[in-house]
Amino acid sequence: MIGVCFLCVAYVLIKGAWLAMTHFGWSFLTNQHWNPVTENFGALPFIIGTLSSAAIALLIAVPLSIGTAIFLTDLAPVWMRQPLTSVIEMLAAVPSVIWGLWGLFVLMPWLHDHVYTWIYKQFSHFPLFGGPIEGSGACTMSAGIIVAIMILPIVTSVSREILRSVPDLQREAAYGLGATRWEVTRIAVLSYARRGLMGAAVLGLGRALGETMAVTMVIGNSPTIHASLLQPGWTLASVIANQFGEASDDLMRSTLYEIGLVLVAVTILVNIGALILIRSIETPGSRRA
Asked: Residue 63: its pLDDT value, please?
């Protein structure tokens, strides 16, 4: 049933994108211009923006999520675990548009005044943190941070369930060999659960790649490729949300369909790569029924 639904979605996207596919060909993926007036469209800025914001989100969210899951599973007092777990689950239920509003009016101004200004002063000689900085704080870094906050509860909840599934025999064996509490966590728990934790990261990656509203509100929506993460950008999902209602002709509308097709392809390719990575770290006997 899932395969049938996917094929239906793929058919709709390919049918809608056919005009743009025949008009631009493969150059659509490498063209970095987006000009509706001259009908010169390219997806490269949006592909880079999508991958950049998702990478930032994962770099921030995955270590924090796994650390929080370890704390809730093995380190926190028993009386504290359920209340904290309930708070995390409630955060996962907050709509993305609410996160976007909070990011737009609270997070971005704070980041601009206290974080981005300092980063620019200290590291502006690196292209990755060059300027000038937008006065509103809208940039690819802001998008990555807001997505990291959004996926953190999901990855934490999944990681916690994975760590809870580690048999107590693993911990007891490590304690019996004289391991300390941190060594038990590192050797007995994380090594046993690493494959599942990688799967939790892949789940967060899927959410990060497809996030739309919150990213649209904080990324700055600029169809220009910048080397700096402190400059505005655009993602594949946000350009569809922004431009579809304003598409004035068949070619532009078809172009947006093709961007949707590219987003699906990027998501599939990245997840395939992640699954290959998961299998590469699998050790004999690690697969569970």
From this structure: 93
CATH of domain 45-279: 1.10.3720.10
Predicted model pTM:
0.88
Written as one string, the DSSP assignment of the chain is: -HHHHHHHHHHHHHHHHHHHHHHHTTHHHH---EETTTTEE-SHHHHHHHHHHHHHHHHHHHHHHHHHHHIIIIIS-HHHHHHHHHHHHHHHTS-HHHHHHHIIIIIHHHHIIIIIHHHHHHHTTSGGG-SPPPTT--SHHHHHHHHHHHHHHHHHHHHHHHHHTS-HHHHHHHHHTT--HHHIIIIIIIHHHHHHHHHHHHHHHHHHHH--HHHHHHSB---S--S-TTS-B--HHHHHHHHGGG--SHHHHHHHHHHHHHHHHHHHHHHHHHHHHHHHT--TT----
The domain locations on the chain are: 45-279
**pLDDT tens digits, one per residue of 91-126:** 888 888 999 999 999 999 999 988 998 998 888 888
